[in-house]
Amino acid sequence: MKTAILSALLVGTGAAQAQSHLDDIRASKTLKVCTTGDYKPYSYLRSDGQYEGLDISMAQLLATSLGAKVEWVPTTWKTLSDDFVAKQCDIALGGVSVTLKRQQIAWFAQPLGVDGKIPLVRCDDKAKYQTVEQINKASVRVIEPAGGTNEAFVHSHLPQATLQLADNVGIFQQLVDNKADVMITDASEALFQQQHYSTLCAINPDKPMQYGEKAYMIPRDDMSWKLYVDQWLHLSTATGEYAQITQKWLGVK
Fold first, then answer.
1. What percent of the chain has pLDDT over 90?
2. Residue 145, preceding peptide bond in cis (omega within 30° of 0)
3. Which of 11-15, 139-143, 151-155, 157-161 has the lowest average pLDDT?
4. What are the E-state strand segments in the chain?
5. CA of 2: how far to CAs of 6, 11, 68, 201, 209, in Å?
């Protein structure tokens, strides 16, 4: 009886390994990447139809390590989890935050770093929007992209604020033009955007309102693929390759 059970487990393990995304990518020479293309500096779809950004560069390096080419799979923050499963992406990236809700349908590769939520505001208003208490008022116009962890933060921590949903690419100009007051976003995005909009300031980037991590989302229950991605990330970090790309896109070491 024990022998039969052991044989069944071995057969099942072999079947699971045979179905790994790692093997599929090596065979097809194609890496399917889900990304939103609206989150600088991680993933941005340019007007010429080409993607660029920190995570875009990393995806291209991952594909190269496998002798494959990238097939970009467009998605949105609102539909990311559903698209990831339905469109059978090998990986999802572009500033993706680790959440337990996403963990229910996918795994995450090793975290790329801590990146919590902070306010991005007009510099003239820095003193007005330092805390949750100051922002959580009906008179404060908070603007966010639909779906994703930024909007979720507003619903859970700022229920009294007036929420506006907008395209993530155009949000920053709306802040500049005084059409909204605050954007809650990850510190990395806020720091990046304040370099490009001189009138915007990231508030307390070293003291986030909520702890967060960035990581690449990968299909659940595929240990062979997870081990490969984790090892690739480990080597990219150890050799300084990831630091060089981060320096290029974030301007930090």
1. 88
2. no
3. 11-15
4. 30-35, 38-39, 43-45, 51-52, 69-74, 91-92, 106-108, 113-114, 117-122, 141-144, 162-165, 182-186, 200-202, 213-214, 217-219
5. 6, 14, 42, 65, 53
